[in-house]
Specification:
Layout lengths: L16 H22 L3 H6 L1 H10 L6 E4 L6 H9 L34 H15 L5 E6 L6 H13 L3 E7 L10 H11 L7 H10 L5 H18 L3 H5 L3 E7 L3 H12 L4 E7 L7 H5 L26 H15 L3 E5 L9 H6 L4 E3 L4 H13 L3 E7 H4 L3 H9 L6 E5 L16 H5 L6 E3 L4 H13 L5 E4 L23 E4 L4 E5 L3 H14 L4 E5 L2 E3 L3 H9 L3 E9 L4 H12 L6 E6 L9 H8 L3 H25 L1
Parallel strand pairs: 1-2, 2-3, 3-5, 4-5, 6-7, 6-8, 8-9, 9-11, 10-11, 13-14, 13-16, 16-17
Antiparallel strand pairs: 10-15, 12-14
Helix pairs in contact: 3-11, 5-6, 8-9, 13-19, 15-17, 20-24
The protein binds thiamine diphosphate.
Length: 635
């Protein structure tokens, strides 16, 4: 068995191609076994086993910089760079990260989680190398899905122009998470399948060169003819025209061919694009036959491929998806827009029912946002279904195109709050801070799934501009559901538990935590009111004034970055109103990134727990007693 002895990628150089092939089998078995217990990105990694082996065989990490787009397909790279023993901890708290992580290894040179950054990163490293007068190689591996992202096109444009020496490996498996979409995808399919294109490029160019040169007008015509023949027959001409040397398509599971091609790429003095055709999920039948489902998978039984899902309530995502179908039936103006996440965003039922009103734009959050603005301005009711974390990409479009136009776009912001095993690149904890300062937008968060449904109706009936509802990556609470959906008056909060002297203003899942804290504190003789602060913008000013006037000490409890949170908005409100004696304490997420783990562990790490909330109220009580004591002493 070779695999357990591989501690450093340099060891690969001593192996024969046959041995590398054996190693590929062992790596696949290892991944299938380990991930059956931990879960993780199985299908993407099974698809890049040979590619990663060839990469480490041909190049010299960490001197040569290897950059993995998204970074979810770097498990093989982790195995080959001495981290095999840590796979039992994959994506677990304090364990091996599911993405590239610089603190784990000197071989991890670029971190990601969001897609389409690898080409810009490669270009940056190549430019720095040249400025420093060094000569290491830079290689970026990017999937055909990630290539649909705007950043990737921006980088291609720049790289092709600058002609820096670097290698881009396009890992083309025809899949994003869902089947890939778009004109680039169609173009790549054509290259893969067209029998003309499958001819070696050199062979075609040789034939073209043999057409004799002739003078005058005739020569120009012949040149034009050659060009159009080239267009017809040479694969990858689009990349060639952009300034890349195109090599491929090459079978991404054939180690001999991959090694040859990478060596060839290394000899080119300028940017090269190696087009490798791979099968996502390669070598494990369930993953090969449904790579969408197996992109990121929970634990499973190896023999049957049966996925072991925890039984429990459905996710908020599913309630959103079902309710959108209901609303879609009532209102033909509703269109659902997804940046490459139809399944993850719960839109499959909607896409089946209303295929014409379902728009998958590829990994293109910026384009999706602007598209929504324009559709809204033409009278449609677009729902931009997006994960909080990926919405970060579309900040300018939200400001400039949606909010400034005051367009009636509905935002369905999924994965709001901690997300668990995906970790710091995916936490949905910044959207409140980067949305609430934008004029015109309304932002809501429901305390439970029933309220989510009412919020969706609120958003649909609201015709005065953009409106967002954000919901967590959690199972729903299992509350009774109303059949009739009734809009909630904009900017109104709800008292879910009466109390006196102290109030917790909470949003989303924190409302439940606040209720539990109030129950516990009641046993200690402290009465706490719980407010469902369901509008993060606009705030319920009346209620805030009332709380201040009655001398209630307030605790704002949220699972978002505290800087820029609703809590900050509450402080701003009191400052603006000249109410300087309001007692407000904030609990949110401190100013640092929170790594992977389970959601309860992440909450524990930042103190969003029952005990911390109770303690904070006790602290407020101690402070109040001290203040009262001081006042009576002074009088
Ligand atoms: C900006 C952004 N949007 C969405 C995602 C979610 N996402 C993760 S991987 C992925 C598909 C990537 O497809 P591809 O690059 O072809 O890689 P593959 O998994 O097929 O190897 C998507 C959409 C993301 N990571 N980043």
């Amino acid at each position: 068995m070779l695999l357990p002895n591989i501690k450093h990628p340099k060891q690969l150089m001593n192996l024969s191609v046959n041995e590398l092939e054996d190693l590929a089998v062992q790596i696949r078995n290892f991944l299938i076994e380990k991930l059956s217990v931990t879960g993780g990105h199985l299908a993407p990694n099974l698809g890049v086993v040979e590619l990663t082996l060839a990469l480490h065989y041909c190049f010299d990490s960490p001197r040569d910089k290897m950059i993995f787009d998204v970074g979810h397909q770097a498990y093989v790279h982790k195995i080959l760079t001495g981290r095999m023993d840590q796979f039992d901890t994959l994506r677990k708290y304090k364990g091996l990260c599911g993405f590239v992580k610089r603190s784990e290894s000197e071989h991890d040179v670029w971190e990601a989680g969001h897609s389409s950054t690898s080409l810009s990163a490669a270009m940056g490293m190549a430019m720095a190398r040249d400025l420093k007068g060094e000569n290491n190689r830079v290689i970026a591996m990017i999937g055909d899905g990630a290539l649909t992202g705007g950043m990737a096109f921006e980088a291609l444009n720049h790289i092709g122009h600058e002609q820096k020496k670097l290698i881009v490996i396009l890992n083309d498996n025809e899949m994003s998470i869902a089947p890939n979409v778009g004109a680039m995808h169609n173009y790549l399919s054509k290259i893969r399948s067209d029998r003309f294109y499958l001819r070696a490029k050199d062979e075609v160019e040789m034939v073209l060169k043999k057409i004799p040169a002739i003078g005058g007008k005739l020569a120009k015509t012949a040149e034009k003819m050659k060009d159009s023949l080239k267009y017809m027959m040479v694969p990858g001409v689009l990349f060639e025209e952009l300034g890349f040397t195109y090599l491929g398509p090459v079978d991404g599971h054939d180690l001999n061919k991959l090694i040859d091609t990478l060596n060839q790429a290394d000899n080119v003095d300028g940017p090269v694009l190696v087009h490798a055709v791979t099968t996502k999920g390669k070598g494990y039948r369930p993953a090969e036959s449904d790579s969408h489902k197996w992109h990121g998978i929970t634990p499973y039984k190896i023999e049957s491929g049966q996925v072991l899902k925890a039984v429990g309530n459905p996710m908020y995502t599913e309630v959103f998806g079902q309710t959108l179908v209901e609303l879609g039936e009532q209102d033909k103006r509703i269109v659902a827009v997804t940046p490459a996440m139809p399944g993850g965003s719960g839109l499959i039922p909607f896409s089946k029912k209303f295929p014409d009103r379902m728009i998958d734009v590829g990994i293109a959050e910026q384009h999706a946002a602007t598209l929504c603005a324009a559709m809204a301005m033409e009278g449609m009711k677009p729902v931009f279904a997006v994960y909080s974390t990926f919405m970060q990409r579309a900040y300018d479009q939200i400001v400039h195109d949606i909010c400034r136009h005051n367009a009636n776009v509905m935002f369905a912001i999924d994965r709001a709050g901690f997300v668990g095993a995906d970790g710091e690149t995916h936490q949905g904890v910044y959207d409140v801070a980067f949305m609430r300062h934008i004029p015109n937008i309304v932002i809501m968060m429901p305390k439970d799934e029933n309220e989510l449904r009412h919020m969706m109706k609120t958003a649909l009936d609201y015709n005065e501009g953009p409106i967002a509802y954000r919901y967590p990556r959690n199972n729903v609470r299992g509350v009774p559901m109303d059949t009739e959906l009734v809009p909630i008056p904009i900017g109104t909060w709800e008292i879910v538990r009466p109390g006196e002297g102290y109030a917790i203003l909470a949003s989303g899942p924190m409302v439940q935590l606040a209720e539990e804290a109030a129950e516990q504190l009641k046993r200690e003789g402290i009465s706490v009111e719980v407010v469902n602060a369901r509008f993060l913008k606009p705030l319920d000013g009346e209620m805030l004034k009332n709380l201040a006037e009655t001398g209630t000490s307030m605790l704002v409890l949220e699972e978002v970055s505290q800087a820029g949170s609703m809590g900050s908005a509450v402080l701003e409100y009191f400052a603006e109103q000249g109410i300087h004696d309001a007692v407000v304490s904030l609990m949110g997420i401190e100013d640092r990134f929170i790594e992977h783990g389970s959601i309860p562990q992440q909450r524990e790490e930042v103190g969003l727990t029952l005990e911390s909330v109770c303690q904070e109220i006790r602290n407020l009580k101690t402070a109040r007693t001290a203040e009262l004591g001081k006042r009576s002493f002074m009088s």
